[in-house]
Amino acid sequence: MDTKMENKPMGQSSVNVERSKSATAIIENYLATKDALVADNSSKAASSGKALFDAFAKFDISAQPKPQQKELAEIIEDAREHAEHISENSRDIGHQREHFEILSTDLKDLIVITGSDRNLYQIFCPMYNNNAGGMWLSASNEIKNPYYGNKMMKCGSVQQEITVK
Amino acid sequence: MKLLKRIGFALLIVLVGIQFIPSRSNQSTVVPPTDFIKTFEAPEQVGKILNTSCYNCHSNNTNYPWYSRVQPVGWFLENHINKGKEELNFSEFGSYSGRKQKSKLTSMISQVEDGEMPLASYTFIHREARLSAESKKTLIEYLKKLKD
Q1: Predicted confidence band of residue B24 (pLDDT cuts 50, 70, 90)
Q2: What is the CA radius of gyration of chain B?
Q3: SS3 A14
Q4: Cβ-count burial of A3 within 10 angstroms (0-12 exposed, 13-18 middle, 19+ buried)?
Q5: What domain count does chain B have?
């Protein structure tokens, strides 16, 4: 264990990803969707979800390394569907949040392959979904919970730092 | 009054006419190898629950009710089934990527847990498709096991 790790709270790790702008539109719209859910604003989440859906559609898989293209295609196929559900359920924030949770895992896996244009934090709230827990990505390590919004804004802790090389 | 009669008559003709346009296209005699129950060799009880409460709208084989022969009800059902299959098709589940399977399982679990599925508008007519507390528990436990 190196000294850096010892200063961090238990269970926290870090991962390095390439510096890349290829997923910028996806990250932007993901974070906008997340912020809308934090603000309990389902109509804003729906419009950001639509923009996120479009960003996935525009993503150029062929520009990515060959060996990862199949996995990327699967990630995007899945993630697009979740973004679509978020965009179509502007009156059901609970449903939007359910899809956002699965989408967050997709996004994390995507960024590990495509790289990121900024540092991100993977934050985990163990209470979400009947204590099954749910994670999300944020550009800041300040805890603002998109699954509970105002009800439980502070539930969560940084699980992993995603650092751009 | 005369005009109303004419409109009524025209409507009647249309209503009779559309009865000759078929729908009921979602039927298949073979169960494909990608079928959910087949792929995971689901226990009989789970298979029965899925068949009764889910497969009518979420597979390539619908057990149509008699009134599906009546238009425009049949078209409405057709549209509904197409949408259902687009979201989740048990007949093709085995061909989904591992990621998609996992993600669909997550959604199935939460939809059933929350009582969102089967749809209330569906179980209102199809009383047999309602999930008893016991079936619900059996189904959710099985889906959770698959997901892990």
Answers
A1: low
A2: 19
A3: strand
A4: exposed
A5: 1
A and B: number of Cβ contacts within 8 A: 24
- The residue type found at A161 is E
Token code pair at residue A24:
């910028």
Q: What DSSP designation does B96 have?
A: S
For residues B142 and B42, is the Cβ–Cβ distance under 8 A? yes
Give CA B4 to chain center in angstroms: 39
- Closest chain B residue to the Cα of A129, Cα to Cα: B110
Helix, strand, coil shares, percent, chain A, to 5? 55, 15, 30
Exposed (0-12), middle (13-18) or buried (19+): which is B64, by Cβ within 10 Å?
A: middle
CB–CB of B106 and A102 under 8 A? Answer: yes
Which residues of chain A are modeled with pLDDT < 70?
1-11
What is the span of the domain harbouring residue B52?
Answer: 2-147
Q: Is the pTM of this model over 0.90?
A: no
Rounded Cα–Cα distance for residues B111 and A146 (Å): 20
- pLDDT at residue B117 greater than cutoff 50: yes
Chain B positions contacting chain A at CB under 8 Å are 97-100, 103, 106-107, 110, 114
Q: Chain B contacts of A128, Cβ < 8 Å?
A: none
For A61, residues 6+ apart whose C-beta sits below 8 A from its C-beta are A69, A72, A73, A76
pLDDT reading at B6 higher than 50 = yes
Any idea which of A11-15, A97-101, B43-47, B90-94 has the lowest mean pLDDT? A11-15
Instruction: Look at residue B79 in the predicted model and tell me its pLDDT.
Output: 86
Q: What is the interface pTM, i.e. ipTM, of the complex?
A: 0.83
Comparing CA positions, the residue from A33, A14, A19 lying closest to residue A107 is A33
Those residues with Cβ within 8 angstroms of residue B145's Cβ, 6 or more apart along the chain or in another chain: none
The two three-digit tokens of residue B59, written as one number: 């597979």
